[in-house]
C-alpha cells in the first residue's frame, strides 16, 4: 500500500465526509438553481417550481451532492413558536421538506388520541331530537380528560372499567306548564363509580347489587389524577337539545379513547394546517402615486408607505407574513410582475391547540419511523 493510500480514511462511512470536505468539491449550487430548489415562485397565473427535488444525484453533473444528510438536517432544523394561546399555536418549522410538515398535520388531525362519547344508553327521550341524532351530537362534545391516563377499549371483550371508560349521566325534564328549556353540555354529569343503569338481561343474585354496563373496581375520583381534576365536557354551553313542557331526556353516555382516523369526533384539533412562508420582494423602488396604488392593491395591508424626504414617498414591505398570495399586487400588467416578486420559502406554519399536541405528534412520527426501520432490518 502506498503512503497516499494510507492517508485515505477507512471505508467505514467517513469516506463521504472526507470527499465532501475537499477544496475542489463544490458545496453550493449556482444562485438560480439554489433559488429554484429552496423557493416556490408565484407568477400572476400560477406558482412555479413547486416540486421538491429529492433525488440525491440530480446535481451530480455539477458536483453537488443532493442527498439528505442527518448531520446537516440536525444543524439546520429549527422550530420557532410565533404565537401561543390557550387554544392555538402558530410556529415556523425551518429546514424541513413540506412533506414532513404535512405528516405532522395529518398526525395531529387523525392519530393523536382523545376521549369522546362512543356509546349512549337511552332510558327515555321524549324530545323532538331523535335518539341517533342526539347520540351523534353527544359524540361531538369535546371531553376535558387527558387521554394519556386511559387505555384503549378492548374491542374483543366487554370489560368497561375505570381505566378505559368515562361515564356521564344526563337527566333533564321540562315540567308541564313551564317554558321550553335548552339542554346544554353542562348537564352531562360525571359518574366516577361507573354506570348506574342495570343490564336488563342479567338478573342479580339475591342481596347482590344489580349488574350495570360497567365493571369499575374503584371510583375514578379516588384516583389521584382525577380527584383534583373532575372530568367534564370542555365547554359547558354546547346546545344538545330543546325540551318543551312535559318532555324529558334520560341517558348515560360512555366516553372512550380513540383517534380521529376512526371517527372525526376523536380528532384533537379543530384544524391543523401549514403553508409555505411567503416572501414579498420589491425588485425596484415603487414611489409616489405607484406606491399609493400598490398599497391600495393589497387587501391585507402588507405594504406601508415611508417618507423619503423632499415630499417623496416610497412603498415598503411591512407585513410579509400576512400575505395570502392572492397575487393582486402583480396583476394589472407586466410591469407589476417586474416590480413585485412573490415567493414561498420552504418552511411551514401551523395553527393548532397547545404545544403538547405537537409533542405527541412528534412521538407518533418517531414510533412510525421505528416501526419502518424494524420491519426493514
Ligand atoms: S399577493 Fe395579495 S396579499 Fe400578498 S402582497 Fe400581493 S396583494 Fe398583498
Fill in the keyword field for this structure.
17 strands; 377 residues; 10 helices; 24% helix; alpha+beta; binds iron/sulfur cluster; 4-stranded antiparallel β-sheet
Strand content: 25-35%
Radius of gyration (CA) equals 30 Å
What fraction, in percent, of the residue positions are helical?
10-25%
Distance between the first and last residues' Cα: 36 Å
- Summed up, the helix count is 10
Listed once per kind, the bound small molecules are: iron/sulfur cluster
Label the CATH architecture of the domain at 114-265: Beta Complex
CATH class of the domain at 114-265: Mainly Beta
Name given to the CATH homologous superfamily of the domain at 114-265: DNA-directed RNA polymerase, insert domain
**H-E string:** HHHEEHEEHEHEEEEHEEEEHEEHEEH
- Secondary structure class reads alpha+beta
> How many beta-strand runs?
17
Mean pLDDT across the residues is 84
What is CATH's topology name of the domain at 114-265? RNA Polymerase Alpha Subunit, Chain A, domain 2
Low-confidence stretches: 1-12, 346-352
Q: What would the principal axes of the Cα set say about the shape?
A: elongated
GO molecular function: DNA binding; DNA-directed RNA polymerase activity; protein dimerization activity
Subcellular location: Nucleus
Protein name: DNA-directed RNA polymerases I and III subunit RPAC1
Family: Belongs to the archaeal Rpo3/eukaryotic RPB3 RNA polymerase subunit family.
Amino acid at each position: 500500500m502506498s503512503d497516499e493510500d494510507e492517508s485515505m480514511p477507512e471505508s467505514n462511512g467517513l469516506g463521504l465526509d472526507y470527499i465532501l470536505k475537499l477544496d475542489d468539491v463544490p458545496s453550493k449550487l449556482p444562485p438560480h438553481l439554489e433559488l429554484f430548489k429552496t423557493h416556490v415562485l408565484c407568477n400572476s397565473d400560477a406558482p412555479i417550481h413547486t416540486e421538491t427535488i429529492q433525488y440525491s444525484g440530480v446535481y451530480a453533473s455539477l458536483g453537488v451532492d443532493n442527498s439528505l444528510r442527518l448531520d446537516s438536517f440536525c444543524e439546520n432544523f429549527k422550530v420557532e413558536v410565533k404565537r401561543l394561546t390557550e387554544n392555538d399555536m402558530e410556529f415556523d418549522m425551518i429546514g424541513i421538506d413540506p412533506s414532513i410538515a404535512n405528516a405532522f398535520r395529518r398526525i395531529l388531525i387523525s392519530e393523536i388520541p382523545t376521549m369522546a362519547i362512543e356509546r349512549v344508553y337511552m332510558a327515555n327521550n321524549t324530545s323532538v331530537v331523535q335518539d341517533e341524532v342526539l347520540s351523534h351530537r353527544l359524540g361531538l362534545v369535546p371531553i376535558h380528560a387527558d387521554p394519556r391516563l386511559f387505555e384503549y377499549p378492548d374491542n374483543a371483550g366487554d370489560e368497561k372499567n375505570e381505566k378505559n371508560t368515562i361515564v356521564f349521566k344526563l337527566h333533564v325534564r321540562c315540567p308541564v306548564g313551564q317554558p321550553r328549556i335548552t339542554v346544554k353540555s353542562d348537564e352531562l354529569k360525571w359518574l366516577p363509580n361507573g354506570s348506574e343503569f342495570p343490564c336488563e338481561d342479567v338478573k342479580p343474585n339475591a342481596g347482590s347489587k344489580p349488574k350495570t354496563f360497567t365493571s369499575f373496581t374503584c371510583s375514578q375520583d379516588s384516583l389521584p389524577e382525577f380527584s383534583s381534576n373532575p372530568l367534564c365536557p370542555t365547554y359547558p354551553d354546547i346546545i344538545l337539545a330543546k325540551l318543551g313542557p312535559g318532555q324529558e331526556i334520560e341517558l348515560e353516555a360512555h366516553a372512550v379513547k380513540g383517534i380521529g382516523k376512526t371517527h372525526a369526533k376523536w380528532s384533537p384539533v379543530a384544524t391543523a394546517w401549514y403553508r409555505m412562508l411567503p416572501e414579498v420582494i420589491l425588485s425596484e423602488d415603487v414611489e409616489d402615486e405607484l406606491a399609493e396604488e400598490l398599497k391600495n392593491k393589497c387587501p391585507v395591508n402588507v405594504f406601508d408607505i415611508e417618507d423619503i424626504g423632499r415630499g417623496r414617498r416610497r412603498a415598503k414591505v411591512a407585513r410579509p407574513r400576512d400575505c395570502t398570495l392572492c397575487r393582486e399586487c402583480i396583476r394589472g400588467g407586466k410591469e407589476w410582475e417586474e416590480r413585485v416578486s412573490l415567493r414561498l420559502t420552504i418552511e411551514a406554519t401551523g395553527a393548532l391547540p397547545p404545544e403538547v399536541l405537537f409533542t405527541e405528534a412528534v412521538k407518533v412520527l418517531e414510533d412510525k419511523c421505528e416501526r419502518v426501520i424494524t420491519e426493514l432490518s
